[in-house]
TrEMBL record:
Domain of life: Bacteria
Matching Gene3D superfamilies: Homeodomain-like (1.10.10.60)
Protein's organism: Paenibacillus lactis
Protein name: AraC family transcriptional regulator of arabinose operon
UniProt domain HTH araC/xylS-type: residue ranges: 169-267
Stored PANTHER family: ARAC-FAMILY TRANSCRIPTIONAL REGULATOR, HTH-TYPE TRANSCRIPTIONAL REGULATOR EXSA
Keywords of the record: DNA-binding, Transcription, Transcription regulation
Amino acid sequence: MDSNLTNQVVAADFSFHRKPFNMTMPDGFDTYLMRWQTDGRCRARIDDELALVEAGDLLIFPPGQFYELRIDDEVNAMGELTIESGDYHIFFKGPWADAWWKSKKRPSKIRVPIEERYLSLFRQIVLEQRRVSNPYPEISDYTARILCLEVDRLLSEQPTTTPKTYLAYRMKNYIEENASSMFKLEDVAAHVGISVSRAVHLFKETFGTTIMQYTMDVRLNMAKERIVFSPLSLEDVAETSGFANYTYFHRVFRSRFGQSPKQFRMNSRTPT
Protein backbone atom coordinates (compact mmCIF):
# COMPACT_ATOMS: atom_id res chain seq x y z
CA MET A 1 0.00 0.00 0.00
CA ASP A 2 1.16 3.56 -0.75
CA SER A 3 2.28 5.11 2.55
CA ASN A 4 1.39 8.55 1.16
CA LEU A 5 -2.31 7.70 1.07
CA THR A 6 -4.40 9.20 3.86
CA ASN A 7 -6.18 7.30 6.60
CA GLN A 8 -8.47 8.57 9.36
CA VAL A 9 -9.56 7.04 12.64
CA VAL A 10 -13.11 8.31 13.06
CA ALA A 11 -13.87 6.77 16.46
CA ALA A 12 -12.32 4.30 18.88
CA ASP A 13 -13.25 3.11 22.36
CA PHE A 14 -13.51 0.21 24.80
CA SER A 15 -16.93 -1.06 25.90
CA PHE A 16 -17.95 -3.45 28.64
CA HIS A 17 -21.51 -4.77 28.87
CA ARG A 18 -23.23 -6.42 31.82
CA LYS A 19 -26.73 -5.85 30.46
CA PRO A 20 -28.32 -7.08 27.21
CA PHE A 21 -27.28 -5.06 24.17
CA ASN A 22 -28.44 -5.48 20.58
CA MET A 23 -27.51 -3.51 17.47
CA THR A 24 -28.58 -4.05 13.88
CA MET A 25 -27.29 -1.96 10.98
CA PRO A 26 -28.77 -3.35 7.71
CA ASP A 27 -26.70 -0.92 5.63
CA GLY A 28 -23.61 -1.26 7.80
CA PHE A 29 -21.36 1.70 8.56
CA ASP A 30 -19.72 4.21 6.22
CA THR A 31 -16.32 3.24 7.65
CA TYR A 32 -14.31 0.08 8.25
CA LEU A 33 -14.85 -1.48 11.67
CA MET A 34 -12.42 -3.56 13.72
CA ARG A 35 -14.02 -5.04 16.84
CA TRP A 36 -11.81 -7.14 19.15
CA GLN A 37 -13.51 -9.22 21.83
CA THR A 38 -11.35 -9.19 24.98
CA ASP A 39 -13.78 -10.39 27.67
CA GLY A 40 -16.80 -12.66 27.78
CA ARG A 41 -18.89 -13.58 24.78
CA CYS A 42 -21.39 -12.15 22.32
CA ARG A 43 -22.86 -13.05 18.95
CA ALA A 44 -22.40 -11.31 15.62
CA ARG A 45 -23.69 -11.76 12.08
CA ILE A 46 -20.90 -13.46 10.10
CA ASP A 47 -21.50 -15.00 6.66
CA ASP A 48 -25.28 -14.80 7.12
CA GLU A 49 -25.15 -16.63 10.46
CA LEU A 50 -25.35 -15.34 14.02
CA ALA A 51 -21.99 -16.73 15.20
CA LEU A 52 -20.49 -16.98 18.67
CA VAL A 53 -17.72 -14.46 19.34
CA GLU A 54 -15.32 -15.24 22.19
CA ALA A 55 -12.36 -13.51 23.79
CA GLY A 56 -9.61 -13.24 21.18
CA ASP A 57 -11.93 -13.00 18.19
CA LEU A 58 -11.35 -9.97 15.95
CA LEU A 59 -14.18 -8.95 13.64
CA ILE A 60 -13.49 -6.86 10.53
CA PHE A 61 -16.29 -5.30 8.49
CA PRO A 62 -15.94 -3.09 5.40
CA PRO A 63 -18.23 -0.11 4.73
CA GLY A 64 -21.78 -1.04 3.80
CA GLN A 65 -21.73 -4.60 5.13
CA PHE A 66 -24.72 -5.76 7.16
CA TYR A 67 -23.88 -5.57 10.87
CA GLU A 68 -25.65 -7.26 13.75
CA LEU A 69 -24.38 -7.62 17.32
CA ARG A 70 -26.20 -9.35 20.18
CA ILE A 71 -25.08 -9.49 23.79
CA ASP A 72 -27.33 -11.77 25.81
CA ASP A 73 -26.98 -14.49 28.44
CA GLU A 74 -24.05 -16.82 27.82
CA VAL A 75 -22.75 -19.76 29.83
CA ASN A 76 -19.53 -18.84 31.65
CA ALA A 77 -16.65 -21.10 32.71
CA MET A 78 -18.56 -22.05 35.87
CA GLY A 79 -21.57 -23.19 33.86
CA GLU A 80 -23.60 -20.18 34.97
CA LEU A 81 -25.71 -17.90 32.79
CA THR A 82 -24.24 -14.42 32.79
CA ILE A 83 -23.96 -11.31 30.65
CA GLU A 84 -20.38 -10.18 30.23
CA SER A 85 -18.80 -8.75 27.10
CA GLY A 86 -15.82 -6.46 26.66
CA ASP A 87 -14.36 -5.20 23.39
CA TYR A 88 -12.22 -2.61 21.67
CA HIS A 89 -13.70 -1.11 18.51
CA ILE A 90 -12.14 1.17 15.93
CA PHE A 91 -13.86 2.91 13.01
CA PHE A 92 -11.53 4.13 10.28
CA LYS A 93 -11.64 5.16 6.62
CA GLY A 94 -9.64 6.69 3.80
CA PRO A 95 -7.74 5.78 0.62
CA TRP A 96 -5.09 3.86 2.59
CA ALA A 97 -7.79 1.76 4.30
CA ASP A 98 -9.39 1.05 0.91
CA ALA A 99 -6.06 -0.07 -0.56
CA TRP A 100 -5.37 -2.24 2.49
CA TRP A 101 -8.77 -3.91 2.30
CA LYS A 102 -8.45 -4.65 -1.41
CA SER A 103 -4.89 -6.00 -1.10
CA LYS A 104 -6.02 -9.45 0.05
CA LYS A 105 -9.04 -11.47 1.04
CA ARG A 106 -9.59 -11.69 4.79
CA PRO A 107 -12.12 -13.62 6.87
CA SER A 108 -14.66 -11.61 8.84
CA LYS A 109 -13.50 -13.26 12.08
CA ILE A 110 -9.82 -13.68 12.92
CA ARG A 111 -8.27 -15.21 16.03
CA VAL A 112 -5.89 -12.73 17.67
CA PRO A 113 -4.07 -13.70 20.89
CA ILE A 114 -4.87 -11.38 23.78
CA GLU A 115 -1.28 -10.26 24.24
CA GLU A 116 0.41 -6.96 25.00
CA ARG A 117 1.67 -6.41 21.44
CA TYR A 118 -1.94 -6.11 20.20
CA LEU A 119 -3.49 -4.61 23.36
CA SER A 120 -1.00 -1.74 23.28
CA LEU A 121 -2.02 -0.78 19.73
CA PHE A 122 -5.73 -0.71 20.57
CA ARG A 123 -5.09 1.23 23.78
CA GLN A 124 -2.93 3.78 21.99
CA ILE A 125 -5.60 4.44 19.38
CA VAL A 126 -8.34 4.77 22.02
CA LEU A 127 -6.25 7.18 24.11
CA GLU A 128 -5.46 9.32 21.07
CA GLN A 129 -9.17 9.58 20.25
CA ARG A 130 -9.99 10.66 23.80
CA ARG A 131 -7.74 13.70 23.61
CA VAL A 132 -9.87 16.83 23.62
CA SER A 133 -7.17 18.72 21.78
CA ASN A 134 -5.19 16.57 19.40
CA PRO A 135 -2.80 18.45 17.10
CA TYR A 136 -1.25 15.17 15.95
CA PRO A 137 -4.01 12.98 14.44
CA GLU A 138 -1.28 11.25 12.42
CA ILE A 139 -0.40 9.24 15.54
CA SER A 140 -3.73 7.40 15.59
CA ASP A 141 -3.62 7.16 11.79
CA TYR A 142 -0.26 5.39 11.71
CA THR A 143 -1.03 3.27 14.77
CA ALA A 144 -4.17 2.03 13.00
CA ARG A 145 -2.06 1.21 9.94
CA ILE A 146 0.34 -0.79 12.10
CA LEU A 147 -2.63 -2.65 13.59
CA CYS A 148 -3.95 -3.52 10.12
CA LEU A 149 -0.53 -4.78 9.03
CA GLU A 150 -0.12 -6.77 12.25
CA VAL A 151 -3.40 -8.51 11.43
CA ASP A 152 -2.10 -9.34 7.96
CA ARG A 153 1.15 -10.69 9.40
CA LEU A 154 -0.83 -12.84 11.82
CA LEU A 155 -2.83 -14.23 8.92
CA SER A 156 0.29 -14.94 6.86
CA GLU A 157 1.90 -16.76 9.78
CA GLN A 158 -1.16 -18.87 10.35
CA PRO A 159 -2.33 -19.91 6.86
CA THR A 160 -4.29 -22.82 8.29
CA THR A 161 -5.62 -21.96 11.71
CA THR A 162 -6.09 -25.01 13.88
CA PRO A 163 -6.16 -25.28 17.67
CA LYS A 164 -2.65 -26.77 17.57
CA THR A 165 -1.03 -24.16 15.35
CA TYR A 166 -2.81 -21.39 17.26
CA LEU A 167 -1.15 -22.55 20.49
CA ALA A 168 2.22 -22.90 18.76
CA TYR A 169 2.10 -19.32 17.44
CA ARG A 170 1.05 -18.03 20.84
CA MET A 171 4.14 -19.68 22.32
CA LYS A 172 6.27 -18.15 19.56
CA ASN A 173 4.85 -14.69 20.33
CA TYR A 174 5.49 -15.20 24.03
CA ILE A 175 9.14 -16.01 23.35
CA GLU A 176 9.60 -12.96 21.12
CA GLU A 177 7.98 -10.64 23.67
CA ASN A 178 9.83 -12.01 26.69
CA ALA A 179 13.21 -13.02 25.25
CA SER A 180 15.03 -10.20 27.06
CA SER A 181 14.05 -11.68 30.45
CA MET A 182 14.74 -15.08 31.94
CA PHE A 183 11.99 -17.68 31.61
CA LYS A 184 11.70 -21.45 31.69
CA LEU A 185 9.95 -24.03 29.53
CA GLU A 186 7.29 -24.19 32.24
CA ASP A 187 6.52 -20.50 31.73
CA VAL A 188 6.03 -20.92 27.98
CA ALA A 189 3.76 -23.94 28.47
CA ALA A 190 1.77 -22.24 31.24
CA HIS A 191 1.19 -19.22 28.99
CA VAL A 192 -0.98 -21.37 26.71
CA GLY A 193 -2.27 -23.70 29.42
CA ILE A 194 -0.67 -26.99 28.34
CA SER A 195 1.94 -29.38 29.75
CA VAL A 196 5.64 -28.89 29.11
CA SER A 197 5.91 -32.13 27.15
CA ARG A 198 3.02 -31.17 24.88
CA ALA A 199 4.41 -27.65 24.42
CA VAL A 200 7.83 -29.00 23.43
CA HIS A 201 6.33 -31.46 20.93
CA LEU A 202 3.87 -28.97 19.46
CA PHE A 203 6.46 -26.23 18.95
CA LYS A 204 8.95 -28.60 17.29
CA GLU A 205 6.20 -30.05 15.07
CA THR A 206 5.06 -26.59 13.93
CA PHE A 207 8.37 -24.76 13.48
CA GLY A 208 10.97 -27.51 13.08
CA THR A 209 13.06 -26.22 15.98
CA THR A 210 12.93 -26.42 19.76
CA ILE A 211 11.56 -23.77 22.10
CA MET A 212 14.97 -23.15 23.65
CA GLN A 213 16.76 -23.04 20.30
CA TYR A 214 14.29 -20.48 18.98
CA THR A 215 14.69 -18.49 22.19
CA MET A 216 18.45 -18.55 21.70
CA ASP A 217 18.07 -17.35 18.09
CA VAL A 218 15.90 -14.41 19.19
CA ARG A 219 18.30 -13.47 22.00
CA LEU A 220 21.36 -13.61 19.77
CA ASN A 221 19.66 -11.40 17.18
CA MET A 222 18.79 -8.90 19.93
CA ALA A 223 22.38 -8.97 21.17
CA LYS A 224 23.83 -8.42 17.68
CA GLU A 225 21.70 -5.32 17.20
CA ARG A 226 22.63 -3.90 20.60
CA ILE A 227 26.33 -4.61 20.10
CA VAL A 228 26.31 -2.57 16.89
CA PHE A 229 23.80 0.20 17.57
CA SER A 230 23.78 0.78 21.34
CA PRO A 231 26.38 2.25 23.70
CA LEU A 232 25.77 -0.55 26.22
CA SER A 233 28.77 -2.41 27.58
CA LEU A 234 29.05 -5.99 26.36
CA GLU A 235 28.13 -7.21 29.86
CA ASP A 236 24.96 -5.09 29.76
CA VAL A 237 24.19 -6.35 26.26
CA ALA A 238 24.29 -9.90 27.57
CA GLU A 239 22.04 -9.09 30.55
CA THR A 240 19.45 -7.11 28.59
CA SER A 241 19.31 -9.78 25.89
CA GLY A 242 18.25 -12.49 28.30
CA PHE A 243 21.56 -14.22 29.06
CA ALA A 244 22.29 -15.31 32.63
CA ASN A 245 25.90 -14.13 32.55
CA TYR A 246 28.54 -12.78 30.19
CA THR A 247 30.67 -15.92 30.18
CA TYR A 248 27.80 -17.99 28.81
CA PHE A 249 26.85 -15.25 26.33
CA HIS A 250 30.45 -15.01 25.09
CA ARG A 251 30.61 -18.77 24.50
CA VAL A 252 27.36 -19.11 22.56
CA PHE A 253 28.00 -15.91 20.57
CA ARG A 254 31.44 -17.11 19.45
CA SER A 255 30.05 -20.56 18.64
CA ARG A 256 27.30 -19.06 16.46
CA PHE A 257 29.14 -16.23 14.69
CA GLY A 258 32.78 -17.35 14.76
CA GLN A 259 34.01 -14.30 16.65
CA SER A 260 33.71 -12.83 20.11
CA PRO A 261 31.19 -10.08 20.92
CA LYS A 262 34.10 -7.62 21.23
CA GLN A 263 35.49 -8.57 17.81
CA PHE A 264 32.02 -8.34 16.30
CA ARG A 265 31.54 -4.82 17.69
CA MET A 266 34.94 -3.68 16.42
CA ASN A 267 34.42 -5.17 12.94
CA SER A 268 30.89 -3.76 12.66
CA ARG A 269 31.98 -0.25 13.56
CA THR A 270 35.15 -0.15 11.48
CA PRO A 271 34.66 2.12 8.43
CA THR A 272 34.90 0.29 5.13
